[in-house]
Amino acid sequence: MSRKALIAGNWKMFKTGSQAVATAKKLAQLVENMDDRDIMIAPTLLSLPLVSQNLEGTPVKTGAQNLFHEKEGAFTGEVSAEMIKAAGADYVIIGHSERRQYFHETDNGISKKIKAAFDARLTPILCIGETHEEKKEEKTFYVLDKQIRNGLKGFRSADELSGLVIAYEPVWAIGTGNVATPEDVETTHQYVRSLIMEIFGKDLANATRILYGGSVKPDNVSVLMSMQNIDGALVGGASLDADTFIKIIKFD
């Protein structure tokens, strides 16, 4: 089946509110009337409401970089899925390797966040990927199997996961300039899709968009996107500049 491409930008901890709005406005002008692919940017939580307001009516959607699984309560410093939705977001990135590494997020906690996202009508982007050491030890598929099975544990049917997006981001390729070969990414995405099929069935496997992230740039996006099982990209540093990001969005 045909899956609509999704090009997403993760702005991480960059840009003040005014800087984020300026970049978002410029990007919206560059993609005006573009409807053959989905576009998303994830600014910081502080900038999210401002950016969302300025992107209303444009092809560019917004997302958050994280959430907390509870709806409300005494959780100082956290933000719920409902709050993110109210801020204007449509997507939320969950389980990014930086969250796993620096904030010790677990697959169990990630599973709770995915459920919270769906409950708030947000589209979760589940990030998975192996470290350099795990790759050297040929544990890539083992790691991805564990992250997917545990991260989606508790979901009983494909219907509960309708709209799920998965982003394969090998940790060794994020922000390093190193990028997996398109053939290797395709093989890995094929494995991820087969795993979704095994657990939840063919329909969800065929519908789930699997993005690649890890040093995606204008000069390598087209060959990546030519692969059958690469449905888009989760872009870090190259998404911070509208003139650069548009070259990725407009892959041919």
From TrEMBL:
Binding residues annotated for substrate, in chain numbering: 10-12, 175, 215, 236-237
A Pfam family matched in the record: TIM
An example molecular function term from Gene Ontology annotations: triose-phosphate isomerase activity
InterPro entries: Aldolase_TIM (IPR013785), TIM_sf (IPR035990), TrioseP_Isoase_bac/euk (IPR022896), Triosephosphate_isomerase (IPR000652), Triosephosphate_isomerase_AS (IPR020861)
Pathway(s) it belongs to: Carbohydrate degradation; glycolysis; D-glyceraldehyde 3-phosphate from glycerone phosphate: step 1/1; Carbohydrate biosynthesis; gluconeogenesis
Entry annotation: catalytic residues: 96, 169
Superkingdom field: Bacteria
Compartment annotation: Cytoplasm
Disulfide bond listed as a keyword: no
Listed GO biological process terms: gluconeogenesis; glyceraldehyde-3-phosphate biosynthetic process; glycerol catabolic process; glycolytic process
Catalyses which reaction(s): D-glyceraldehyde 3-phosphate = dihydroxyacetone phosphate
Known function: Involved in the gluconeogenesis. Catalyzes stereospecifically the conversion of dihydroxyacetone phosphate (DHAP) to D-glyceraldehyde-3-phosphate (G3P).
Identification of the protein by name: Triosephosphate isomerase
Originating organism: Desulfocicer vacuolatum DSM 3385
